[in-house]
Amino acid sequence: MKLLQRSSLYQLALAVPIVIVGTAIGYWLVSAVVKEEVDEQLTFRSKRIAQDLRNGKEDFTTGASSEMMLVVPGVSAGTMFMDSVMPEPEDDGELMPWRIGRFPAEYADGTPCTITVGRSLLETEDLVMGIAASMTVLLLLVVLANLLLNRWLSRKLWKPFHHALATLERFRMDAPSAGALPASDVDEFNAMNRTLDTMMMKMRADFTTQKRFTEQAAHELQTPLAVMQGKLDQLIQSPNMGEQEAGTIDGLFQARERMGRTVTHMLLLARIGNRQFAPERIDWSALFRDQHAALEDLITERGINFTMHEEEACRVRLHPLLAELIVANLLRNAVQHNIPSGSIEVAIHASSFTIRNTGPELPVDPTTLFDRFAKGDPSSASTGLGLSIVKEIADGNGLLVSYTISHGTHTIAVRNG
C-alpha cells in the first residue's frame, strides 16, 4: 500500500469516530437546549394558570392539540418535568413525544392543587433531527474537504520524493549519468537528493573501476598461463625426461588447468556481479539437451541414467550465456558428484526447473556449497566455484535457487523469485 493511501486511511479511521461522536454530542446539546426552552415555556404557562386560580377561575381548556392544561386537587411533591408519549388522534392514535410539567398551586380558597401542563415535542423533535442532520452533513463535508486537501498537499509535497524514486528505478551503473536530482523547497528532500547524487556517482565510479580491473585482469592473467602451458608442452616432449619428471610435469599440468579454471570463473563472477547481462527468453529444454550431449561420454562411462521431461515451456528469463553457464554447471555437478550407475532427472516447469541426482550423503549443510570455494569433499579437484556461479547468477537476476538432500537424492531447483 502506498504511503499516501495509508495516511488517508489513518485520517479516515480518525474521522469516522469524530463524526459519530460529534453528531451524538450535537444532538444531545440541541435536545438539551430545546427541552430547557420548553421547560421555561411550561413554567411560564403554569404561573399564568396559578394566577388565574387565585383570581377564582376554575375552567382551563385549550383548543390547541399540541398543548395540554389540567388542574387537579391534591398536594404536589414539587415542580417536576418529565418526557412522555401520548396518542395523536389525528394520526390514528400514533404515539407522539410530549414534555410534561407538574407544579404545586392553590385555589382561591387556599386549597392545594396540582397544575399539569404539557406540550407536544413533535415539531421540536423534527427541528432537533434537522439540526443534527445538518451538523452531520457539515462534519462530513469538513472531513471530506480535509481529506482531499491533505491528499492534494501530500501529492504536491511528496512530488520530489517520487521523482527521486523514479530516478533510482531507472538508475544503471553502466549507463551515462542522468544529471543531478532537482532542488526542492523542502530541506529534507534536498538532503536526500544530495546523498543520492553522491551515492550514484560513487557507484558509477566503483563500477567503472571494477570493470576496468576485470578487463585488465582477464588479459594479464591469460598471458602467463599461456606461457606456462607452452613451457610445460616443451618439457613433456623432451626425449631425456624420466618417469619421475613426467609425473611432476603431469602434476604441474593439472595445477595449471585448475588455476586456469579458477581465473576464468573468478572473472566470470566479477562480470555477473557487475550486471553486464540483459535477460532474454530461453529454450531451456534445448539447452539441457545440448549440455547433455556435451557430457554424454562421461555419463555413459559412469553408467548414469539420464531422463528429462518438460511439463510446459519454462518462462525463466536469463541472458543466453548465463543460462548456458547455469545448465552446464548444474549438469556437470550432477555427473561429477553422482554414484556409479546412478541417475539424473531434469524436470522443466512453467516457472522453474529442477535437477535431481543420486549421490553420497554430504558431511556439510548443502546450502553452504553455494559459497565460493566451498566443497563437500575437500580432496576433490573441483574449484568449488560451480554452484557459487549458479547462486550469483540467480541472485543477480531475481531467481531463487535451493539445494536439498533426501534419502540419497540431491535436488537443486531454480525458480522465478
Considering the chains and any ligands shown, give keywords for the structure:
single chain; 417 residues; alpha+beta; Beta-Lactamase; Helix Hairpins; 9 helices; 11 strands
State the oligomer.
Answer: single chain
What is the radius of gyration? 46 Å
Give the number of helices.
9
Helix content: 40-55%
Give average pLDDT, whole number. 80
Overview of the structural elements:
By secondary structure, this protein is an alpha+beta fold. It has 3 domains: 3-155, Beta-Lactamase, CATH 3.30.450; 187-273, Helix Hairpins; 280-416, Heat Shock Protein 90. It is built from 9 helices and 11 strands. The longest helix is centred in the N-terminal third of the chain and has 52 residues, at 3-54. It is elongated.
Give the arrangement of secondary structure elements.
Layout: H1 3-54, E1 67-73, E2 80-88, E3 94-106, E4 112-120, H2 122-157, H3 159-170, H4 187-236, H5 243-273, E5 280-281, H6 284-294, H7 296-301, E6 305-310, E7 317-318, H8 320-336, E8 343-348, E9 352-358, H9 386-396, E10 399-406, E11 409-416
Parallel strand pairs: 6-8
Antiparallel strand pairs: 1-4, 2-3, 3-4, 5-7, 8-9, 9-11, 10-11
Helix pairs in contact: 1-2, 4-5, 5-9, 6-8, 8-9
